[in-house]
Structure formats: C-alpha cells, structure tokens
Specification:
Length: 673
C-alpha cells in the first residue's frame, strides 16, 4: 500500500512538473484534491487533462483582395500552439505547394505562441476558384504517436478592377427643355461592378442619383444641365466615366399646313392651319404679303389658328402669312395658295359626220381651265400625233377660260376603228393629290356615201301583160345604204313604193309600165338608178276617122287620122287601096291630110296598128263629090267651115301628141290627153 501511494504521489509530482513549465496550459485533475487517501487493497483512478497546445485550425489572411496581375500576400497562421519547435506549416494553392516552413529553434520562453508563414504571388485568371490550403503539423514527443494535423481551406476569389466604363445617351447630350433623356452605363470587372450615377455639383462633390445602370431624366429643365458621372465599383477598385448634358431653353415653333405651297381648286374650300408648339398663350394674325384682303375667315383657338378660303377663286392667288407672338418673341410662316381649275375631261367635237374623202374639222376643248398658260394639249389619231399646242401666258387675264385646238383632216374608210385621243395636261407641281392629266377618246366611224347602185331585172324590163317580174337593187356604202323603190310620175316627182331590195310584180298590167327608181340612202348621201318597165299589149281601140266627113266635095281638105288607145305606142300605118294593092301613105303622127280633094282621092283607106304582140286593122271609104262647073259658089256656111278647119287641125295634132306621150309613160288616159 505504501508502494502504491508512493507511485500515485510520484506520478502527480511528475505531471505537475511537466505542466508547470507553461502558463498557457490548462490542467484539470480529478479528483480535484491536492492529496487523496486511498485504501490499501482498493483501486484509485487519477485523471489529468490538458487543452490548448494545438487546439485551433490555422487561419488564412490576405493582405488585400486578390486581383488579377497584382501581388497579394497570403498569411497562414497557427494560433496558440505549443511546443512550436515541433510545428511545421505548409501553404498550398490548389494541388501545388507554395511554401513549407518548420519552426525548429527551441525557445527559452515556455508559452503558447502563434506561428505563421507568408506567401506572395500574383493571381491569374486560371486561379479563379482554386483552393488556398494552410496545413499545420505538430510533431509530439512520443515518436510512437502520430503527428497532430490541422488545416484550413479557403476558395480563392480573384477580382478584376472595374474598367472600360462606357456611357450611351439617347437621344442626345444636347437637349431642349421638356425633352427626356436616357443614359445607360456599363463597366467590366470581377465581381461585376456596382453602377452608381451621380451629378457633379458646383463645389466638385458628387450627388448620388441612382444605383441602377440606367438613369432616365423626364421633362428636363435648363438647370438639369451639367456633368453626370457613372462609376463602376467593386471590392478592388473603381472606374468612372463622365458625360456632359446641355439642356437649352426651348424656343416655340410655328408650323403652317398643308405646306409651303398648296394648289387649291377653284370653287372648293381650303383650310390653312397655323400650329404653335411650346408656347402657352400665343396670339395670331393673318395677312397677305401684299396686304390685299384676305377673302377668308379666321378662327383661333388654343395653339392653332385657321384661315378658311371658301369658295376659292382667282383672287386668292397670294402668299398668306401667319404671325405668332409668344411673350416678346414673334415668328412668321407663309404659305402660297395657287388656285387652279381643271374640272373635267376634254371634249371632242366634229364639224360634221365623217365621210370618206370629205374634209372634217375635229375640235378638242378643255372647259373652265386655270391657269391656262400652263395648259398643254395633244391630239392623236391612233398612235400618230396630229397636233399639239402649248398656250402662252396672258398676264392681263385672271379668269376661267375654255381652251381648244382644231385640226382638219380628210378621213378614209381605213380610219374606221381608229381612236381619236385628246390629251390635256396642267403641270402644277404642287398638285400632289389632284389629277394633272385628263383625256377623252372617240372611236372613228367613217361614213361612205352610197355608190355603185345597180338594178337587176328578171326576166326582162319589156314584158307581156300578165307576166311576173323581179327588180333587185343593191348599193354600196357605210353604213350600209337603205334601199327605197319609187315610181316616177308624169310631173317628174317620185312616188315611194317599197323599202325592200327586191320589187316584185306578180301579174303585170299595162298600167305598170313606167320608170322605176331605186335609191341607196344613208346619212351621208343618196345614189340612184332608174329602169324603164314596158308592159306590152296587142293593139286595140283603133280609131280611123275622116275630118270633116267621109263624104266631101271636090276641092275640100280632108284629114284622115288613125289613133290607138293602148300603150306602149304601136306602129300606125295608113294605106289606100289601089288596083294593085294598098299604097302606104306618108302620114304624120297617124294623120294624113288631103289638100283640095280630087275625085281620084275617093276610095278605101286602111289603118294598121301593130306591135310585137299583135296587130289590128280599121278601114273607111272616102267619097269625093264633084263641083258644078259653071257657077262660082260661095256661101257663108263654107266660110265658117273653112275657118273651123284651120282651127281643128292643130287641135287634132295636139290630141295625137298627148295620146302618144301618155302611151309612152304607160298611163294612158283619154281624158288627160
């Protein structure tokens, strides 16, 4: 038991001696008594614990945030280590050992100390994300015990200082009051720089405005002018860019519409508008450049003023000026009004119908045109130009006028189907939405007067009574002529009969004889053709007479007359019977005159009437009595008879003449004769 107690007290003395050499050790004993009594034969347990000799992990410290290309010192420290002469510290970057240090020199000072090593290097882009490792190894006294190790790992965050800071300004760095502007800033770096917008004050200080990349200023004013600073900032640096904004005081503007010039159609209305911007209370006035009457109505409201010209006339051909007063400033805008009139297409007129070979004048006119000095006209026939005309200026006239051109030409049948084109241009440059060109067309239809009129008679124009006959008429012309059949009367007039091309008589009569006229008619002329139709009949109604009587005295005058009552006239032959036959007498118009009849003139007289159809005979016997030889006989009755004889002979001749004429015309009438 004494031995056991000696051992216990001996171990306790040794531990106290070991631990007493270092004030940094913390020693705990259990039981916590300076002396302990133990019963002999029993067991006793003494516990001694010490902490703090290698109780903390190493610490890694950087002299500054790591930045690509710039040296940085890394300190790897091991705090509160003892005994440090057995300490070994190694620093690794990734898998590569950068530095190893052992602390071998014994120190007279017996206490806990912090030991460290330093490594300086310049980070690269490849170092981003690598691990920094600080590893500490403490080799204890007992060589059989493994060394104590502690290590700390820290990811390497490599920084890039902000650079390439840039600013974009939209719409411009020069602005007007009331405008809006957007400024956008960008800056490159790692980590991504924070963007700060500031405005430089007059004293040089910066007034922070925004921490967004985009700075928008709305409805800016003149006092917003100045220098704006964009700063890119991250833990390793700053980079700034300045931009200068100039905000000008806004001047009011005046616009006049529809534009600097306007073409106004005469008779219509036009509105001139004067519009002001950036002026709260404008005042307006309108005038003409030559201070003539406005001839229009002015209305002003708010920022607009209008001048209405209604209706537009040639008197409105002026420069109109709108004057706007805003505060102390005045602005004036002008607009030129150019009246014009070009209301309708040209009109094409002909002097008469188009007849092949006959000259005709075509007129092309443009009504109510203004200003006519700019008018151009062209006349085409098909693809060929016939005439053009440019009208000269007449400064003394300011009125609507009708202008025209005329061309005389001789149409031909080949012109039919061609197109006449009348083209009119009024080249007014300001007529942006009005018709500057008008045209009219007319298709030519050339008329050809009837010609080559012919009549075809079938079977013949000389027929026997009761026969049929067709008379067909044709005529050439354009348009196709209309056919008109007529019969010529005795007075020369024409009696219309038919409008068919063919005139047909089914059973002709003697009265159908006569002159028939065919006319080809169109609107430009007439062509005619005649045909004589003869209806023949056998001679009939022959009259053979002796005047004054069939019994006369010797020395008397006797007229023997033969007439035929049908047409056409027949051949009349007067004959006197003789012993050897009949002797043909020389008659005139069917009449034979015996002057101073003799006894030998007595006898049988015969009249034969014949034609192609037949013949007829008539006879009479003339008796001539002899006179008493020894007496001169003269009586009043004989004188009267003698005078009547010389009157009757011409009358009989006239009757015969008219009878024959009536027979030739085919309308025999004894009463008419």
């Amino acid at each position: 038991m004494l031995r056991k107690m000696f051992v216990i007290f001996g171990i306790s003395d040794i531990l106290w001696m070991v631990f007493a050499v270092s004030q940094a050790f913390k020693v705990d004993m259990f039981p916590n008594e300076y002396k302990i009594f133990a019963q002999i034969g029993d067991s006793v347990s003494l516990t001694c614990s010490a902490t703090g000799s290698f109780s903390k992990d190493p610490e890694i410290h950087l002299s500054r945030p790591p930045e690509v290309g710039k040296p940085v010192t890394v300190t790897c420290s091991v705090p509160d280590v003892y005994p440090f002469e057995r300490l070994e510290i190694e620093f690794l970057k990734g898998n590569r050992s950068m530095k190893v240090q052992e602390f071998l020199e014994p120190s007279e000072k017996k206490a806990q100390e912090t030991k460290s090593l330093e490594v300086t290097f310049s980070p690269t882009d490849e170092d981003i994300g690598k691990a920094l490792v600080c590893q500490a190894t403490l080799h204890i006294y007992d060589d059989d015990s493994p060394p104590k190790e502690r290590k700390t790992t820290k990811e390497l965050e490599v920084y890039i200082s902000p650079k390439d800071t840039a600013v974009s300004v939209n719409p411009s760095t020069r602005l007007q009051e009331g405008d809006s502007v957007t400024m956008t800033c960008t800056s490159a770096g790692l980590p991504a720089p924070r963007i700060l917008w500031s405005k430089k004050l007059d004293n040089g200080n910066l007034q922070l405005l925004s921490e967004n990349a985009t700075l928008t200023l709305i409805s800016i004013r003149a006092e917003d002018s100045g220098i704006y600073v964009c700063e890119g900032d991250n833990p390793v640096g700053k980079d700034r860019k300045e931009v200068k904004l100039i905000v000008q005081e806004r001047n009011f503007t005046v616009e006049i519409s529809p534009g600097p010039q306007i073409a106004a159609q005469i008779g219509h209305s036009v509105v001139l508008t004067c519009d002001v911007r950036d002026c709260e209370s404008p005042s307006f006035s309108w005038r003409t450049q030559i201070d003539s009457p406005l001839n229009g109505k002015v209305r002003s409201e708010g920022s607009k003023s209008t001048l209405t010209l209604s209706p537009v006339s040639v008197e409105n051909e002026h420069f109109y000026l709108c004057t706007v007063t805003c505060g102390q400033k005045k602005l004036e805008k002008r607009i030129q009004v150019k009246p014009y009139s070009f209301p309708s297409d040209p009109e094409i007129e002909m002097s008469g119908p188009l007849v092949s070979g006959n000259p005709v004048t075509v007129s092309c006119k443009v009504p109510n045109v203004y200003p006519f000095d700019r008018l151009e006209m062209e006349l085409f026939k098909g693809e060929s130009i016939m005439m053009n005309k440019v009208f000269s200026k007449d400064v003394s006239k300011k009125a609507l006028e009708t202008k025209s051109l005329e061309k005389t030409f001789i149409p031909t049948a080949e012109d039919t189907g061609n197109v006449l084109v009348c083209l009119a241009r009024l080249p007014i440059d300001e007529m942006e939405f009005e018709l500057k060109q008008r045209q009219s067309t007319q298709t030519l239809y050339v008329n050809v007067a009837p010609r080559d009129t012919t009549i075809l008679v079938s079977p013949s124009s000389i027929l026997e009574e009761g026969s049929s006959v067709n008379m067909t008429c044709s005529s050439n012309g354009l348009p196709a002529p209309k056919i008109l059949w007529s019969r010529q009367l005795s007075n020369g007039n024409l009696q219309p009969i038919s409008e068919n091309e063919t005139l047909t008589f089914m059973a002709t009569k003697m009265e159908d004889s006569g002159i028939y006229v065919c006319e080809g008619i169109n609107q430009v002329g007439i062509s005619r053709k005649e045909v004589k139709l003869i209806i023949q009949v056998a001679p009939k109604d022959i009259q053979l007479t002796a005047f004054p009587s069939e019994s006369v005295k010797e020395g008397d005058t006797v007229i023997i007359s033969c007439t035929c009552g049908n047409v056409p006239p027949t051949l009349v032959i007067l004959k006197k019977k003789a012993e050897t036959g009949y002797t043909v007498l020389k008659s005139t118009g069917g009449a034979y005159t015996i002057h101073r009849a003799q006894l030998e003139d007595a006898g049988v007289y015969q009249c034969e009437s014949k034609n192609e159809v037949g013949s007829q005979l008539r006879s009479l016997t003339l008796d001539v009595k002899g006179r008493e030889s020894n007496k001169d006989y003269f009586s009043p009755e004989l004188l009267v008879l003698y005078c009547a004889f010389f009157l009757i002979i011409p009358a009989i001749g006239m009757i015969i003449y008219f009878a024959r004429k009536a027979s030739m015309t085919g309308s025999y009438s004894l009463v008419e004769a």
